[in-house]
Amino acid sequence: MAALLEARGVTKRFGGLIALNKVDFILEEGRIASIIGPNGAGKTTFFNVFTGLYVPEEGTVSFRGAPLLGLRSDQITALGVCRTFQNIRLFRNMTAVENVLVGMHARVGAGLWSALSRNRRFKTEERALWARAAELLDTVGLRGRANEIARNLPYGDQRRLEIGRALASRPALLLLDEPTAGMTQGEARDLMALLRRLIADLGLTILLIEHNMRVVMEVSDHVTVLDYGEKIAEGRAVEVQRDPRVIEAYLGRRKWTPAAGDGRA
């Protein structure tokens, strides 16, 4: 499999704190991978490096062989990398379908003059965008709630809407920061099924930060473990589960089972 995303020797410091210390990472195309670790391990910092929010002091990051470091977040999105955040960041007073339409900004072809004049090209593209938004809401199971205000949606549906908005930018790589946080077991199970469908139907590659070990074990093709900014293990979920460094650093000395959850979260 080809490497879609590759990081080499990434180091990020905040004053005297080393958040990432010479971390290497490779993500193959068409996979679901997870980055796990205790709170403060550097997981979200790594995501922020991938998406242009942070620039590391050392190392390189490439997507499809093209360097990402130094690009703005919107430029990285245009290349095909999109993310959600640990804390829900919807436009709370807009409808579900309007939130998805906002996510399409990176793929809109009509310019300012077309928008101001509302010419034929603009109207044609506008109809296509609304149709695409409806399709994406259907994909994430929210077609029937298209006109509901985002803040009024149940928590699990708000998480789904965030994914729908991210899909609107037509990503090749979707980064999800704790997508099941706050969900019930049933909602998390439904989300896992959605992620599998996105891989199968849209050909996406998905990278998760996730504390729910049941989700990690059931959906991940590959797992990377960070602790205090360093990579301490990686491999198939079943292999990482048995790694003594992970058992001690991430879960203390308890045996890791999918039902055990995150002992330090």
List key phrases describing it.
265 residues, alpha/beta, Rossmann fold, 2 domains, 4-stranded antiparallel beta sheet, 10 helices, 37% helix, globular, disordered C terminus
Provide an overview of this structure.
The structure is a single chain. The protein is an alpha/beta fold. Helix content is 37%, strand content 23%. It has ten helices and ten strands. A hairpin with a 2-residue loop joins strand 4 and strand 5 (66-67). It is globular, with a radius of gyration of 19 Å. 37% of the residues are buried.
Distance between the termini: 33 Å
What count of domains describes the coordinates?
2
Report the top-level CATH class of the largest domain.
Alpha Beta
Q: Regarding quaternary structure, how should these chains be classified?
A: single chain
Q: Sheet bearing the most strands, described? A: 6 strands, mixed
String of helices and strands: EEEHEEHEHHHHEHEHEEHH
Q: Strands of the biggest beta sheet: in what spatial order?
A: 6-7-8-3-9-10
- The tally of beta strands, per DSSP, is 10
Q: Which range best describes the helical content: under 10%, 10-25%, 25-40%, 40-55%, 55-70% or over 70%?
A: 25-40%
CATH topology of the largest domain: Rossmann fold
The overall average pLDDT, rounded, is 87
Note the overall shape.
Answer: globular
Strand content: 15-25%
